[in-house]
């Protein structure tokens, strides 16, 4: 199957689902059987899965060490990953490896242990990210949580399973103006 056909068909493909498998490290995916759904995941001649969705929710992952390597062994076209579900794990930060998947449009991180609101800034490089969940993390308790996320990621349309409205955007912009100091531009004074 050529790459063009893959991009057209795999959006409808079922996810590669490793949820509820007690996975501790990403390498465990290579020895674990994914869950089976109503429709089976198709495989390329290489034996790798043909899908754009990877579900790793409800496990015990604390980090994403070797994530790229593992995913490249599981998926025929890992660069086309559009949906990653890492909800209900033990992640304490947003691993920069997630920012290497430029086709990522859905990212679920709710129910983890992310405690620094600044972690969200890493996701700003993802051009197609439209849906993000972070509720159930300690950062949810920080003042300006929703506004910070919406300012940092202006292209998302769904945040914490709730649609982003024009009013949300306006509130976020007002919050940004009141809370984010612009970077000072230093003007060099030349000697006269």
From TrEMBL:
InterPro entries: Leu-rich_rpt, LRR_dom_sf. GO terms for cellular component: cytoplasm. It is found in: Cytoplasm. The keyword Cytoplasm applies. It comes from the Eukaryota. Keywords: Cytoplasm, Leucine-rich repeat, Repeat. SUPFAM superfamilies: Outer arm dynein light chain 1. This is Leucine-rich repeat-containing protein 51. The gene is LRRC51.
């Amino acid at each position: 199957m050529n790459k063009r056909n893959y991009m057209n068909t795999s959006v409808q493909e079922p996810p590669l689902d490793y949820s509820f498998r007690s996975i501790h490290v990403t390498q465990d995916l290579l020895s674990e059987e994914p869950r089976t759904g109503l429709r089976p995941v198709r495989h390329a001649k290489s034996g790798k899965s043909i899908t754009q969705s990877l579900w790793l929710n409800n496990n015990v992952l604390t980090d994403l060490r070797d994530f790229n390597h593992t995913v490249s062994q599981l998926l025929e076209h890992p660069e086309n990953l559009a949906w990653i579900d890492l909800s209900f794990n033990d992640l304490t930060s947003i691993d920069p490896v997630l920012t290497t998947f430029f086709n990522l449009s859905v990212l679920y991180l709710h129910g983890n242990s992310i405690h620094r609101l600044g972690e969200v800034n890493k996701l700003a490089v993802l051009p197609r990210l439209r849906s993000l969940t972070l509720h159930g993390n300690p950062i949810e308790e920080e003042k300006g949580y929703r506004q910070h996320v919406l300012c940092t990621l202006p292209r998302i349309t769904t945040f914490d399973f709730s649609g982003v409205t024009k009013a949300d955007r306006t509130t976020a912009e007002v919050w940004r103006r009141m809370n984010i100091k612009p970077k000072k531009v230093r003007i060099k004074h030349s000697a006269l």
